[in-house]
Amino acid sequence: MPAASTPSRRNGRILLIVCLGILGVIAAAGLRPFNPFPRNDAAWVPGRNGLHFGGAGIALSASNLPWPPTVSGPTCSLELWLRPDTNSRANNILTFYTAENPQRFRLFQWANSTLLLYRDVGGEHREIDIEKAFRPGVPVLITVTASPQGTSVYLDGVLRHTSTRLILSPADLSGQIILGTSPLAAEPWSGEIRGLAIYGSQLTPEQVANHAQAWSQGKGPAAAREEVLVARYDFSEGSGDVARGGTGVAPDLLIPRSFQIPHKGFLTMPTREFQGSAAFQRDILINIAGFVVLGCFFCLYRVASVGKV
Question: What pLDDT score does 234 carry?
C-alpha cells in the first residue's frame, strides 16, 4: 500500500505546483501593471492656458462648490471650453459628486463625436444627446443654460438642443467637481480643458455668443453683475498642483500626483459594475476561463492527495 500511494503523492505535488502556477498567472494578470500609485496623467499645457488629460488623468476640487447666499433662484449656467483628443468609449469629462447623488449631473463624451449630459437623482434619469459635437483636436465651447422651463445646450455660441424634460438647478451644479474621469470608476477622458465657469443665472443667447467670442480669444469673459459668476477656472497657472477658482468662494482644483478614483465603490452589485464595452466583456471571459482551469486542476489535486487515482 505505501508503494502504491507514492505515485499518487507525486502526482499530487505536481498538480499543486500547477495550481500555484495558474494562481500566480491570474494574480499577475489582475494586478498588472503592479503600480498601486499610477502617475496622474494631467499636466499643464505648455505656452497656453489649459490642463491636458491623457490616458489616466484627474483634477478635483478641494471641497464642495459653495453657492453664495445671493443665489436664490432656480436658474444656472455652465461653460466648459475644451479640446478633445481621440476617445473610443464613454469618457467622463465633468461630474458634480455628492455622497447622496454620486453622479447627480455629469457631462461626458461617447466615442469621438457625441456629447451626453446626464442628470440622475434617485431613480429618475434624464439626458441630452448631441451628435457630432466633437472632433478630435478641434476646440469647442459647451454652454449649458437652465431655468424651470428647460435646459439649452450651445456649441461655440450656437444653440444645438433644448430639452423640457431635463431640468437643472443650482443643486445639480453643487458638490465636488471632478474633471477627467468618473468619481466612481476609471472612465478617463483624453483632451485639454481650457476653461470652466459656473453662473447663478440663465445666460441669454446674446451673453452666450459674447462669452464664446471671449473664450475663443484665450481668456475667460468678464462677467457682468447680472450674470452672477459663482466659479471660473481659466487654468492660467501653468505650473504647480492647484488651479485657482477665481471668484474668492470657489474651491481650488487639485491636481494630485497619482491617479486615484476618489469615491470608488467597494463590493458593489455586479449589475452596477456591468459595462457593454468589448474590453469589459473580454475581461469577464478571461476571468471565467482562468478560474475554470484553476478549479479543474484543484479538483484533480484533491483527488490525487487522498490516493484515489
Answer: 93
